[in-house]
Write a structure and sequence with these properties.
single chain; globular; alpha/beta; about 20% strand
Amino acid sequence: MSATETTGRNGGETALTKADFQSDQETRWCPGCGDYAILSAVQQFMPEIGIPPERIVFITGIGCAGRFAYYMDTYGMHSIHGRAPAIATGLATARDDLSIWVVTGDGDSLSIGGNHLIHALRRNIPVNILLFNNQIYGLTKGQASPTSEVGKITKSTPFGVADHPFNPLALAIGAEATFVARTLDRDRRHMTEVLRAAALHKGTSLVEIYQNCPVFNDGAFFALTEKETKDAHQIRLVAGEPIRFGVDDARGVAMRSDGALEIVSVAERGEEALLVHDPTRNDPGLAFALAKLSSDPTGPTPIGVFRDVQRPVYGRTATTPDAASDNQLAALLHSSDTWTVGG
């Protein structure tokens, strides 16, 4: 069976299309919001995985990204603030026949939801997490988020952000997530390539998507997305290839003698000095260094798959304890107290 076919109700094979994943709800975000492009790309991509809509679940948190579940004609849940990874964990543990996707924002996942996110990553729960990062709280009208840059003036930081921002990919790699990637809302081809790799991964995948908020943080990622500047700033990571970028690939990423990464001129250092990208490297050190190569998206910034390694998947390995039988559960529920309060 091909990736775009599934078994129909009458036993035949029916080709899935984008329309099969579009709900009847009116899509409502601010005009020009990057969420529209992401939604369209996801709906266009979904037929590739060959799973019917009734076996796919989208779970969202609170924020502009939370609307995503309404616009996908799949099962879904608009959950509470920051708890989408926790709910997805429970569902993934109970149902191994589902394709489970979490859609969240930088505020939802990295503020109140921070602990749920990192524990889903370290456990390697079989879910795909799409983290929309616009570096601002959009739904609540423009407050600083955990990814807002130092010095940014917002409604909640009239004297400028004083907090050092989270780097979502460095955070994920630090939690030893098995799949970590970054893409852009305005590059459908690249986004689809990353989504495809995430969907094929066994375990937790986290994809950070730089998403423009035209109302409260317009242009935050224009250095990476606009025709005039993107060639000079996008560092595209391709497995097995030297890391080169810039006009005519004149620049690259090399490792210094102390192990730190630096951006160099290819003409001066030579292509043999460039780092060859290997997302399957088990040691997360190089992936972490690549995630930290750019302090913000206004300079040369890596995009693509940073890490793609194998580790036992939570609930899918032989070491997972067998589920308790009905008789065992009944005996436990009718047993005596399991602890004593007081002396």
